[in-house]
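Example 3.2
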Amino acid sequence: MGWILNSDKPIYLQIIDKLSSDIAAGIYSPGDRLPAVREFALEASVNPNTMQKALSELERAGLVYSRRTSGRYITEDLELIEQYKQKLASEEIQQFLTQMQRLGFDKEQTIQLIKEEPSHEPTDHL
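Structure, written as tokens:
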């Protein structure tokens, strides 16, 4: 699992985005135990305090919970995960539609372009 962090926004927010996306995508399964804060911070090449802040925010959101003596775990609330997944998808769609609007396409034109686009695997070079 790669960590690509940049200076566009605070690191802890980027960690939250990555982990919440990984949870929504099923990279982490409900009930999975997360690495310890220091181990996770080392893996991401960030300060442990930054990782702690991000994990605390994920706890507040309900995506992660703590067991006092055994660490942090991914929520087992499948409905919450699905709601979060839908929220992330909606945000991505809104960003895409905004970009298409900047290119001069309205929503209907964008939908038509998507329908006409041949199915293919996404590429990194686009």
